[in-house]
Amino acid sequence: MRIGRGVAALGAVVLAAGLTGACSKNTGTDAKPDASRTYHATISTDPKDSLGPAPAVPGATSGGTVHILQEKDYEHLDPQRTYVSNAGIIEQLFTRTLTAFTPSGRNAKLVGDLATNPGTDVHGDCRVWRYTIKKGMRYEDGSAITAADVAHGIARSFSPELSEGPHYIQQWLTGKQVYNADYRGPYDGGQALPPNLTVSGDTLTFHFPQSHCDLPYAAAMAETVPVPASKDTGTKYDRHPFSSGPYKIESYQRDSKLVLVRNRYWDAKTDPVRHDYPDTIEVDLGASDVEQTNRLVADNGTDRTALSTAQVPQSLIPEVQKNPAAMKRSLTGSNGFTFYFAINCERITDPTVRKAMSYAVDRGAIVQVLGGPRAARPATTLLSPTVAGWQNFDAFPAGAHGNLAKAKKLLNGRHPTLTYAYANSAVNQREAPLVQQMFQRAGFKVVLRALDATSYNTALGKHPKYDFYQTGWGADWPSGAATIPVLFDGRSIRPNGNNDTAYFEQPSIDKHIDELNQLPAAKAGPRWSALEKQMISSYAPVVPLYYQQSFLLHGSKIGGALLSSTGAESFLNLYVRR
User: Fold this and answer.
1) Which stretches make up the Solute-binding protein family domain (predicted)?
2) What is the pTM of this model?
3) Per-residue b/e over 492-531, b at no fewer than 16 CB within 10 Å?
4) Other C-beta atoms within 10 Å of 302: how many?
5) Which residue in 64, 76, 63 sits closest to 4, CA to CA?
6) pLDDT digits over 295-334, tens only?
7) Is the same domain home to 342 and 383?
8) What is the pLDDT of residue 18?
9) Distance CA 357, CA 346 (A)
C-alpha cells in the first residue's frame, strides 16, 4: 500500500505506548535495520474467530467525539480507488471487506469479515475459492448486504476510470497483468460480473486460471468492499461511499473536515474486528506536522480527544522526548513502510545513470532531517525487515552519506538534468532542497517540482513527466508477493493507475515473478529478497532510502490507540476516556 506523503506511514508495527528510553544523538548514521520485527498474519482456521462481536477493549466507554488531525485531504474515499494508507485506515470505519485482520500485536489473525470464514479452498489447489456472506449485515439505510454487492464492487474495480486501487484480484481472475483489456467493468453495457467470478445466493466463487494461495489476504483489500449497483455513482462515489461498517459519513467538506457518525444498522454481532465506541469521529484537515505536535503536547480542549497522523517532526523530537506526559501519550515503533526514490525508467533509460544516482544518495542526511533513529533508519532494500524471508543487502555500498567518487566515475563527465517531483507538504518542503543538494554535489543538475499532495500518488500513476520522485510502500501482507510483483511487473503498466511508478519493464524479472508466485509463501520468502537484489543490482530502478519508524501522539482523553500488526494505524478500538 502507498503512503500519503506528509501523512504518517503506519506499517506492521507493535504498540509501544509510553516509551521513555534515553535520547540518542541525531546523526542520521544509524544504519541498522530492525531485523527482529518480522510480523506474522496467520489465517484463522476456527470459525468462531470470524463471529462477532469483537473482543471488548478493557476500560472502554461509549460516547464522545474523537478528532483525527491530518494535514492533507484524501486522494480518494471510493474504496475501489483506495491504495493510500490514510484513506485505507479511515475507510475501515465505514466499509467492510470479505476478510479482515484483527487489530492486535505482532501476530495478527486473518478472519472472515463479511464472509463466514477466511475462504474455502474448494479443491485444495488454490484455484477455486468460495466465500459465503454472513446473514444480518446491513447498510446505512437498513438494506441487506449481499454477495451480489461484493461482486459489483469487484466488477467496478475493472473500470479504467477507477483503477487507482489494488489489482490483485482483477489480475488473478483474468490471468493477465493488464486485466481490463477485454472486460472493463459493469458500465456502458458491460456484463454485471467479471470473468471467472460467480454468484449464487449468499455465495461468491472465484475461479482462477492459476493457483493463488494468498487470496484470503487479498480479500481483505478494498477490492472486496460491497457496493450496491443502485448506489454506484461511478467517479462521483468518492464523495459519499455507502456505509457497510459501524460509522457512516454525515458530512465531507474537501480540504476542511470529514465527519463520521454511527451507522445504526451496523450489528456488532456480525463484526469480529470493529467497535463503535465514540459517538462521532471528525477528521480535521489542514494542520501541519508541527501544528499537530504542538497541539497534542499542550493537550488542551478538544485536542485532549485528538490523535495525530503526522510524525513528530525533527525540530520537536527533543522537546517531546523530554516531556514525560507527552511520551506517555506516544505511539512508537518500527513499521512496514520503506521509502524510496522511484526512478522513471521511461525517461532515465541508461542504467549507468540510475546506478550513479544510487551512489549519490545521502541517506544519513535524509534520516537526520526527518528526526534521526526515532523517525527513520537508513534502508538499502525495498522489502522491509518486517516481511517474512527478508534478507539485508546493499547493491551500491556508499556509506551513510553517499560515494561521490563512484557516482562521478559512472557519469564520466556528464551532468544530466533531473526533475525531482515531491508532494507539497510541510515535511517534503523541508526535504526537497536537501535532495537537490545531494545530487548536485555528484554532478547532476536538479530541478524541483512541487505537486498537489492530495493527488500526488494519482499523478505518479499516469506516466509523469518527471525523472524521479519519493514514495513509500508497505506490503499488503507480510510477504514479498505483496511488494515485488505490484511494483516491478512491467506487464502491468497501463495509461493510469500504475503502481510500478518506476515504469520498469524487464521480461527476465517478470518470468521470475511468475515462478515465485506459484511457490508456497514459506518457500518463496527468501527468494523474493534474492530477486529484489538481482533486480536492483542489475537495473537500479529504485533507490531505497529509509525504513520508517512511527512516532505519533494522542490526547490524554484518548483510549484504545494502537499501531497494529497489519500495516496500519488502527482506529478500530478508539474510545473517549471519562
Assistant:
1) 109-488
2) 0.86
3) bbbeebbbbbbbbbbeebbebbeebbeeebeebbebbbbb
4) 14
5) 76
6) 999 999 999 999 999 999 989 999 999 999 999 999 988 7
7) yes
8) 28
9) 16
